[in-house]
Design brief:
Length: about 190
């Protein structure tokens, strides 16, 4: 009799805990994915285009060809790694997209590319911990819905101590997918 009762209790407690531990996908991950793809997929061979409605608003970014990997962090006050679910969506992306915790600041000069040490630290100090590839950090800081299908997201992209830019992305949902409609620069270093 005890084994059946114990089995029942374990089953009840297990199903209760399973329901409590289950993690629901973050609805903001769809918006974050749109921003990541917008920044990382930017063409390197075309100049950035200005949005005529906003003097300093860039419609498409110009990706730096030196960035071989991108690292993502999320959070307004405390920066954390993105969810495994979000990164799974980007697993085959080129260049690779990884968690910020997989990056390291490297102040070493880059003589192999003919870049002086000060410029290397200022512009290319973010590296992949495992491969040493040059990277950039995409920080997705603060998100808010302006309307049910329009989000405003604050963040920044930087790759070194003096090489970064802050943005506000306007992300719009259409046909069930989120897409960056506009990007406005808020600061630059």
């Amino acid at each position: 009799m005890i084994p059946k009762a114990l089995t029942f209790i374990v089953a009840v407690v297990g199903s209760f805990l399973q329901g409590q531990v289950a993690v629901k996908p973050d609805p903001l991950d769809d918006i974050r994915e749109a921003i990541i793809r917008f920044e990382v997929d930017a063409p390197t061979n075309k100049p950035a285009q200005l949005d005529v409605r906003y003097r300093d608003s860039i419609v498409r970014p110009q990706r730096d060809e030196m960035h071989e990997v991108y690292f993502v962090s999320i959070g307004e006050r405390v920066q954390v790694d993105p969810s495994d679910d979000l990164l799974a969506r980007l697993k085959d992306h080129k260049p690779p997209v990884k968690k910020m915790s997989q990056s390291v600041r490297d102040p070493k000069p880059m003589p192999e590319r003919g870049i002086d040490a000060r410029k290397a630290f200022a512009m290319y100090a973010v590296r992949d911990k495992l491969t040493g590839q040059i990277g950039a950090v995409l920080r997705i800081l603060k998100s808010r819905y302006a309307k049910p299908d329009v989000a405003e997201v604050e963040g920044a992209l930087n790759s070194g101590g003096l090489y970064g830019e802050g943005y506000i992305w306007i992300v719009v949902r259409g046909s069930g997918h989120w897409k960056v409609k506009r990007r406005k620069s808020t600061w630059i270093s």
